[in-house]
Write a structure and sequence with these properties.
Blueprint (H helix, E strand, L loop, with lengths): L2 H37 L4 E4 H8 L12 E5 L4 H10 L3 E3 L14 E6 L4 E6 L9 H5 L2 E3 L6 E3 L2 H16 L6 H12 L5 H10 L3 H13 L7 H7 L4 H13 L10 H6 L4 H12 L3 H8 L4 H31 L18
Parallel strand pairs: 2-5
Antiparallel strand pairs: 1-2, 3-4, 4-5, 6-7
């Protein structure tokens, strides 16, 4: 064994042990938190990395996590807020001031230094008009924290593929790894014909096609060719959308407040109208859970200035988005297996 190979193995083991130690501490804190949720009758569904670490990955060191994403029911928001604040969690804004950001998502961060947890709590999913179907199809799985409810594997796969477009605007290093481990663990529970029909019904066909195409270029082999044929672009507009996604969603960090991507990421016309209405005139519930109790004068001032600010900033943001679309794609360094170096 060469010296270089030996050093690489030791570095990999050290990193694995560090990630496993951090995740183990977080899981113990989550165990206590989930017990509190269960006692209060609050249902939560883990998303993304937290979902997969609990039900798919074989060890806690295989994937690091920043925040932990939870989907909750809107009617439980008051219970959750009260419970977390009693346990020492404090609310943290997703970005800048709520009244100066543009397109606000329906979510709120709760952070606790004592527990070492950063919870990203959402009560809706960007590409759905309502998350009701996700709750109706949830499944029970055994986990290190005991039996827990999760997204149906078909919904989990759709969420993993859609999230870089609908929320983040960036392909993260764990994107391919998460899809691989989900398909390896729960691929047998996915009815591909029904899944493709659901993608079509949600008007996510082109978006999901590009996500699968990107994953296949990076080395994913578990997706049937029939799935690609079912989701392939069928018109000139579909091919234009693929081109837009190729330029707007890359491995680089996306610029904040991308108006163009915000509209593209919402598939249906109804969803686009809801996004614009929430941007210009955010509901009181969203203000309350993103900013806490806001004085009346600030709400009035925000209601007046927020639409004006969005229109003024569009003269800067839209040309920037236009340049991003038509600039050459960034070059990525690849390993022998076709993955980016950041994913190793």
């Amino acid at each position: 064994m060469s010296v270089v190979t030996s050093e690489f193995i030791h570095c990999w083991l050290d990193r694995y042990e560090h990630i496993a130690l951090v995740n183990r501490r977080r899981m113990e804190a989550l165990r206590e938190l989930f017990q509190e949720f269960d006692q209060k009758g609050v249902e939560v569904l883990p998303l993304k990395g937290m979902d997969l670490l609990l039900r798919a990955y074989r060890g806690l060191g295989h994937r690091s996590m920043g925040d932990m994403d939870l989907l909750v029911k809107e009617e439980d928001l008051v219970k959750i807020s009260t419970l977390l604040e009693k346990k020492g969690f404090f609310r943290q804004d997703h970005r800048r001031s709520f009244f100066t950001e543009s397109f606000a998502d329906e979510g709120v961060d709760y952070v606790s230094k004592d527990y070492g947890l950063d919870l990203d709590i959402s009560w809706n999913v960007a590409y759905l008009d309502s998350p009701r179907s996700l709750w109706e199809r949830r499944v029970l799985r055994e986990t290190p924290l005991g039996p827990r409810l999760f997204l149906h594997p078909e919904d989990a796969l759709l969420y993993l593929l859609a999230h870089p477009f609908t929320c983040r605007g960036r392909m993260r290093p764990y994107f391919l790894q998460d899809i691989e481990i989900l398909l390896e663990k729960e691929g047998v529970h996915i009815d591909w014909q029904r899944w493709c029909q659901e993608v079509e019904r949600r008007q996510l066909r082109v978006l999901i096609y590009y996500g699968l195409k990107y994953a296949r270029e990076k080395g994913l082999t578990r997706i049937l060719e029939e799935v690609f044929l079912s989701l392939r672009p069928r018109s000139a507009w579909d091919r234009c959308l693929v081109f837009f996604y190729t330029r707007m969603v890359t491995e680089e960090n996306a610029p904040p407040d991308s108006y163009f991507l915000s509209l593209l990421r919402t598939p249906t016309r109804r969803g686009k109208l809801q996004l614009l209405r929430r941007a210009f005139f955010p509901p009181d519930r969203l203000i309350q859970f993103r900013r806490g109790k806001v004085p009346f004068w600030q709400r009035v001032l925000g209601g007046v200035l927020r639409p004006l600010r969005i229109l003024v900033r569009s003269f800067y943001i839209l040309p920037r988005d236009f340049l991003r679309v038509f600039q050459p794609p960034p070059l990525t360094r690849r390993t022998g297996e076709g993955r980016t170096a950041a994913s190793i």
